[in-house]
Amino acid sequence: MNSLITELRSICAAKAVLTEPADMAPFETDWRKIYKNPALCVVLPADTAQVADVVRACAAAGVPVVPQGGNTGLVAGGVPGAGQKPVILSLRRMTKIRALDTTGDTITVEAGATLQAVQDAAAEAGKLFPVSYAAEGTAQIGGIISTNAGGMQVLSYGSVRAQVLGLEVVLADGRIWNGLRALRKDNTGFDLKQVFIGAEGTLGVVTAAVLRLYPAVRERATALVGVASLEASLEIFAALRRRAGAALTMCEFFTRAAMDLALAHIPGGKLPCDAPAYLLAEISAHTKGERVDETLLEALESVLETGSATDAVVAQSVRERADLIRIRETIPEGELVEGGAVKHDIAVPIGEIPATVRAIEEMVAQDYPAFRLNIFGHVGDGNLHVNVRPPAGQSLADIAAQKAAITEKVEAIAVARAGSFSAEHGIGQMRLSGMAAHKSAVELDLMRAMKHALDPLGILNPGKVIPVA
Ligand SMILES: Cc1cc2nc3c(=O)[nH]c(=O)nc-3n(C[C@H](O)[C@H](O)[C@H](O)COP(=O)(O)OP(=O)(O)OC[C@H]3O[C@@H](n4cnc5c(N)ncnc54)[C@H](O)[C@@H]3O)c2cc1C
Q1: Beta strands in 173-276 (DSSP E)
Q2: pTM as predicted
Q3: Least buried of 226, 263, 267, 402, by fewest C-beta within 10 Å?
Q4: Residue 1's pLDDT is what?
C-alpha cells in the first residue's frame, strides 16, 4: 500500500495526499458522527486529469475509492465502510466555474464548488440556481448530483436531476467521459448522464457539470402559517397552489415539536405563532412588480376563513423572511445537538400524508411510548423526514438495539401507501436494509448489471447503494 501512496503523491503532489490520522479523521466520519471507519489515505486532486490518474492507480492496486464532496450526506455514502481501508477521493480543491452563459442560461462548474458558490455566481449574473437547503454552504455540486438532492424548491423547479444538462465523469478504469453538453434537446441514444445522477459515486466520479439557470427572482412573499391539523395542511397547500400555480416555490411542513426544537437553538428565537403544526410557504415571481404579496394574502384569507389555518405571519422584510427560513433550516441541526434521532426520509403520494403520519404516530405511541417524534419535510413533494428521538435523558447509543426495528416499521408504513423509503437523501450505507426489503428482484438485478458493466472490479464506493446478493 505504501507504493500506492507514493504513486498518488507523484500524481497529486505530496501535500495533497493525507495520511496522518488527525488529518484524515474529518473525512472518515459522516456528518451525523455515527459512521467512522479508517481510510488508507485522503487524496485531494486539483483537476480532472489527476482524478483520472488516481482512479486508474487505485484500480491497478485493487484499492477501493470513496468519492467525497462536502461530506454532508445523511446516509453515510461518502465515508468508508467497515473493513475497506479505501482511498477517499475528495473533490474539494476542484472549485472552478468554467463558464457562465447568460443567454443560454447555463453554468459549467467543477464538482468541488459548493452549492452556495453556484447560487452566488448565478445571482451575480442576475440569474437563479434554485436548489437550496440548509447544507448549501458545504455541500458540493458533485455531491448534490450524486445524491440527486432535493431541498426546499423542488415543488417548482424539480430536484437536482432536473438541473443537470451535462456531466464530465471519470470512469472506474480511469477514462474520462466528456458529456459537458449545454443542450436542452439531445436525443442521441441513451441519456448517459442520468446513470451517474443519484448513483452516489458507485458508477463514476463526477468532475464537472453543466447546470441549468433561471431568471432571478424579482418578487417574493413568504409566510409562516399555523395549521389546525394534518388534513388542514393539505387544504392550505391546495389553496396556495390554486392561487399561485408554479409560482408557489416553497411549501415546507413541520410539527410544533420541530418548531420548539429549532427555537431552542436560535439565540433569542421567539415563537412566531402558536399552532399544532406549521407550513412555511413562499410565492415568487421572475418579473418585477408582480403582486405576489396579494396572491399570498388572498390565499391566506381563504384558509383562515375556513379554519384550516389558525394564524399566519407574513414576512415584511428580507430580514423577517430570513428569520422564518432559519427556523425551518435549524430543525436538523437542533435535533443533532439534542442527541440525534433514528432518521427517515420517506415519500408518499401527497394525499397519503395525513394517514401516513397518523400510522407512524400510532406505531411509536404503541411500541415505543417514551420516544419522541420530530417530523418535518417538503409537503408539496410528499416528502417527510420522520425522526424518532430517544426518550428524554437517553442517547442514540442507549436505543441502538431498537433502531433497526423502528426503521423497518417506518419504512414499511410508507411503502404500504405506495411510497418510498428514501426520497432525497439516497441509500449510502444506511438504507441498504430498505433496498433489500423493498426493491424487487428485477430492479436489484438491473442495478447489479449496471454496476458490473461500469465498474467490473467493484472499486467505486463498494458496499453502498446495492445490497450484497
Ligand atoms: C443540515 C442538512 C440539511 C440537508 N437538507 C437536505 C435537503 O433539504 N434536501 C436534500 O436532498 N438533502 C439534504 N441534505 C443532505 C444532502 O444529501 C447532502 O447535503 C448533499 O446532497 C450531499 O452533498 P455533499 O457534497 O456533502 O456530498 P457527500 O456527503 O460528500 O457525498 C454524498 C454522496 O455522493 C458521493 N459523491 C460526492 N461527490 C461525488 C462526486 N464528485 N462524484 C461521485 N460521487 C460523489 C459520495 O460518495 C456519497 O455517496 C441535508 C444535509 C444536511 C447536513
Answers
A1: 176-179, 205-212, 214-215, 219-227, 248-255
A2: 0.95
A3: 267
A4: 74
